[in-house]
Amino acid sequence: SRIAHEITPPGSIVELIRQTNILDDSDFVSVGDHGLTFTPIEGHGATLTSLLDSATPFSPIDAAMPGSAQAMTDFIVDTGNTLKALAAAEQADGSDDGVFAVREDMLEGTFVNGERVAEAPKLEDHMPAGAASMENSPAGSSEPLLTTSESSVSVAVSVEVHAGGNNMMNTAFINNSWLSSTVMAAVGNHVEINAIVQSNVWSDVDAIGASVDGWKIDAEDVTGSFNIAMFTRIDPGAMDSAAPALSDSDFPKNWAVTTINGDLITMNWVQQFSFVTDDDIHVLSASGSHTTVTTGENILGNDVSLQDLGLYYDLIIVGGSLYDGNFIQQMNVLLDDDFVAGVSGFETTGNASLSTSGNLLWNEANITNIGGADRFEALPDAYRQLAEDFASGSRDIPLDVLLDPAFAGLAGIRVLYITGNVIDLQYISQVNVLGDADQVALAMNATSQAFPEADWTVSTGSNALVNVAQIIDVDTQGKTYVGGDHYSDEILIQAELVSDTPQYGTQSPDQLVNEAVAFLTDDDLSPIQVDDPTHMHTTHDCIPTDPMQSVVS
Q1: Which of 112, 155, 261, 449 is the most buried (most CB within 10 A)?
Q2: What is the pTM of this model?
């Protein structure tokens, strides 16, 4: 018999979230009494635009959000075909070009830079020590700045520069539990696509002058790149113990039916972008005190967490087809081609260290499906008849359906009937782009004591570009019956592209920096340089450019 009361049907849900950070922090800093000005040195190697162009073929998912039910189904099917073709082409190529691709009907496991591993690395174990964070105090030396004796006080002469240390992080979490059931029966097709596309593209080719050859440089100060992808499938049915013997009295005698006329849509569309230019120019000399210059260490973050908690049904009947697509696309692009060299005559006898790399590019993505991969079966005659009866207006359920073992132990069943298609689309796109190509010219104090004994610490790298995303998609807990075709694709594409083109060619950095420096007379000094006892002057030297336009549009 049919239960008299009605069940409230679920509504369609569409959520569009777009988070964007854009920052230009390109500074010019002049420190010390060196009497010099500096003209930027023009390179001919990698640029942000060229790096973005290199990354584009490996970020093939269209960023335009579909605006209708038909557009959503087309997006799922067309994107699946595009990624499948790209994966097939990369697998057929077979060259060691930094691109890994795999496509299977069902893909499970953890992959790091194209290798299947037992356990994923942890972000906290790889974060650069110099990257800014909310918990860190401002950069500075822990060494004492003053030393005293009975007769005098002396100042530790040093220069400390932090021109990198930017931290960019996109995090997104989607829990899609909007529509779940013990049994789902679709008269039409069932299309399921799970795809992760990740790319890290960077250039970290530094030009270091001979005048700093003797400085301490950490051999482990290198850029690290991680593409981490996890495909997980949890089958709740596998946790059940062996079913006991059943009789007719163990099956439901009652049911309640609710109807949705048309399509049921569940879509979360998340786009996160961070774009930073931090191309700094420094002209530095020791000036008899402790000087700390920080022109980077920016923090940019995008974060979103969505919990779509809907209704649970014992049985869902779909008159049309079911389209289920989970897509994560992540991209990091870094330009960190630094230039550090001394002006003619520069020297130091103090402790000196240089760090121009030590960056981290990190993509981590996890797609978790709740529902067994082997739950699919051909639509039984009893369920096909039930769908036809529902389409004609009847709400009676035949005995053969009620006797499905999935419903054992239930006094009654909750039934949802959808006349059209079910469209379930979850999409996360994350992009970090950072230009941190710094130019540092080192000079001696010219108008007073030269301070060759000064200690120097120069850091122009240690940036972190991080994307972390997870989609949890709750599907059918028991069986999924399909009247048409069942199509499943799980695709992983991981790309790591590194530029090895020297930004400044093969010319001597020391020669270039001397060509870029012009000596000034006292008459040429601006009032702020004359009046400021610290001899420190900073301005923004912003170059209009918009290499992100093609990415965020």
Answers
A1: 112
A2: 0.88
